[in-house]
Specification:
The complex is a heterodimer. Chain A is built from 14 helices and two strands; from the N terminus they run H-H-E-E-H-H-H-H-H-H-H-H-H-H-H-H. Chain A is mainly alpha-helical. Chain A has two domains: 2-60, no CATH class; 83-313, MetI-like (MetI-like fold, Orthogonal Bundle), CATH 1.10.3720. In chain A, strands 1-2 form a two-stranded antiparallel sheet. In chain A, helix 2 (21-60) packs across helix 14 (288-313), helix 6 crosses helix 8 and helix 13 packs antiparallel against helix 14 (288-313). The longest helix of chain A has 40 residues, at 21-60. Chain B has a single domain (61-271), classed as MetI-like fold (Orthogonal Bundle), CATH 1.10.3720. Chain B is 74% helix and 0% strand. The longest helix of chain B has 36 residues, at 2-37.
Chain lengths: 319, 275
């Protein structure tokens, strides 16, 4: 309670100078001015670059507007037709399907691997710091660099195909193949963010008190039982947090899809994602109203998914 | 005896798993680095002929292509954005943690709600605004909209809440004003959190692609990820050079991470953001 200290100081002040209503009021005004002055840069930035544009985006999503048209105010109201159009648009539906496949494939895989690695790294092993560092490096690398690296590794005469060839797998240029391009993006996403979730799991693991494990092992619980009955339940808030972050990130996939398809979501829209389609509609087709509607659909999807997870995980999760 | 054997066996499996995964995590970098040292003719040769390796590709990219310029742009943009974030996020975070002003609760609630909105929603109107302002393809456009961050404010608020109040109280009694306390006492005490904020923002901005690809239109304004992507699109058959470009983009991140590992891990485990 930050207010407490201030009133204490105030009391001391009053003892010295005599209790006048005036000094108290002055201090309150001072607090108000200071508070808003400190927040001012953020408030301005949020209003100009977030809240304002958000309102404009909302209005635009009900209008037929192209950037080349001139004033937004003159643009024609079209009601919900941008939203309706999205659900009839085969390319948008494909984008939504791709993004959902991507999320279903990536989110559980990366969290399970991250948790397994966190458990291993958290046990008493030598070189813990080295492994933690090694696993984390892909996370801090640019998505563009990762995408290009994977394109190179997975081209038809690349090292991965050479390796797979040892097992009799035919070589393909993954990023040019309608069946393999999306899985390639999924692979690079899993590879590049396991470290992130591992670190968060590690922090969660370290918060579990040792006494719980001690008590359990006195009672004769095996390592496996300890994992199921202590570790996993105690990690619930961390798992929820990771799930939310990972799922929100998954629905916003853009960079990798842009790089491997040269910005067009190809081959044959097999790497078209929701954000990439929004980008294309907004900045290649100048169909701004439609692009904004796609943005709000994305927001609603993410919002609903977060609520479902919250329900599923119950109220005890702190977020 | 029996039990000891069991433990040993699980140890071996543990080490196999973690070493195996370390190879998966680092292997692509090693292969990329080796390729970047090869001449183009050797790219598809999987044995390494050490006599042909050289840093030629790097000097080539630096001299014949604007990689130097792109690198400089990335440094300038990331530095400005990071300084802005350190200053403004800690100001706002401090107000939310310590100053009892009317509207504080509402402001914090606003921060939390905005964190739930995907940033891509505002892409179209923000781009239109920046076009109106004439900021597209300028450093202004690449930096000013990104000077504060919701996650950063959240991180700083948590930090200030956990800081002991007694020193600030003593300073108040000594007659120091709010700004004096903040700049002379609070910020010096917050150095570790500020460093975390700076490094994570710097790395996030260094790697950022979506916004710079919209806002940097001509080659001399490209940041490194945008530049590398356009280079890759045109010269993809020269994988050795492209891989050198990948290394130029990745190595600064890796070096910064190796030096400031603790800061990264602290920032990530508090907010789950990687910048």
């Amino acid at each position: 309670m930050p207010s407490l200290s201030k009133t204490e100081i105030q009391k001391n002040d009053m003892k010295g100078k005599g209790p006048t209503q005036n000094t108290f009021k002055k201090a309150k005004i001072r607090e108000a001015i200071d508070g808003w002055l400190f927040s001012l840069p953020f408030v301005i930035s949020a209003l100009v670059f977030f809240i304002g544009p958000l309102i404009v985006a909302f209005l635009l999503s009900f209008k037929q507007y192209s950037f080349l048209d001139g004033s937004i105010l003159d643009a024609e109201w079209v009601g919900f037709s941008n939203y309706i159009r999205a659900f009839k648009d085969p390319v948008f539906r494909k984008a939504l399907l791709n993004t959902t496949i991507y999320a279903i494939g990536v989110v559980p895989t990366q969290l399970v691997i991250a948790l397994a690695l966190a458990l291993v790294v958290n046990s008493k092993i030598k070189g813990k710091t080295f492994f933690r560092t090694a696993y984390y490096i892909p996370t801090i690398t640019s998505t563009v660099a990762v995408a290009i690296m994977f394109m190179f590794l997975f081209k038809s005469d690349g090292v991965l195909n050479k390796f797979l060839g040892l097992f009799g797998v035919n070589p393909y240029t993954w990023y040019d193949n309608i069946y393999l391009a999306l899985p390639l993006i999924m692979l690079m996403a899993i590879w590049s963010s396991i470290g992130l979730y591992m670190i968060i799991f590690l922090a969660g693991l370290q918060d579990i008190p040792d006494s719980l494990y001690e008590a359990a092992s006195i009672d004769g619980a095996s390592k496996w039982q300890q994992l199921i009955y202590i570790t996993i339940p105690m990690l619930k808030p961390t798992i929820f947090f990771n799930l939310v972050v990972s799922l929100i990130g998954a629905y916003q996939i853009f960079d990798q899809a842009y790089v491997i398809s040269d910005g067009n979501g190809g081959p044959l829209n097999s790497t078209m994602t929701v954000v990439l389609y929004l980008y294309k509609m907004g900045f290649d087709e100048f169909d701004m109203g439609y692009a904004c509607a796609i943005g709000f659909i994305l927001f609603v999807i993410i919002f609903i998914l977060t609520l479902i997870q919250k329900k599923f995980f119950g109220e005890e999760t702190k977020m | 005896m029996e039990k000891k054997k069991g433990i040993k066996f699980s140890r071996i499996i543990f080490y196999l798993i973690i070493i195996g995964y370390a190879l998966i995590a680092l292997g692509p970098y090693i292969w990329t680095f080796i390729t970047s040292l090869k001449p183009t003719s050797e790219v598809n040769n999987f044995s390494i002929d050490f006599s042909t390796l050289s840093f030629k590709n790097y000097t080539f990219l630096w001299k014949k292509f604007p990689f130097g310029r792109w690198f400089l742009n990335s440094v300038i943009v990331a530095a400005i954005v990071s300084i802005g974030n350190v200053l403004f996020n800690s100001l706002a975070g401090y107000a939310l943690a310590r100053i009892n002003f009317p509207g504080r609760k509402a402001l914090f609630l606003a921060v939390l709600s905005m964190m739930m909105v995907p940033g891509q929603i505002v892409m179209v109107p923000t781009f239109m605004l920046l076009t109106k302002l004439g900021w597209v393809n300028t450093y202004k456009g690449l930096t000013i909209p990104f000077l504060t961050s919701l996650f950063g404010i959240f991180l700083m608020r948590q930090f200030f809440l956990s800081m002991p109040k007694s020193i600030e109280e003593a300073a108040t009694i000594d007659g120091l004003g709010r700004f004096g306390i903040f700049f002379r006492i609070v910020l010096p005490m917050a150095k570790p959190a500020l460093a975390t904020q700076f490094i994570i923002t710097f790395n996030g901005n260094w790697n950022s692609f979506l916004w710079p690809s919209l806002l940097a239109k001509s080659s001399e304004m490209y940041t490194l990820p945008v530049g590398l992507n356009s280079f890759q699109g045109q010269y993809y058959q020269f994988w050795d050079q492209v891989m050198a470009g990948v290394m130029i983009l990745s190595i600064p991140s890796i070096i910064i991470f190796l030096i400031f590992q603790k800061n990264f891990i602290k920032g990530i485990s508090t907010t789950g953001m990687k910048g």
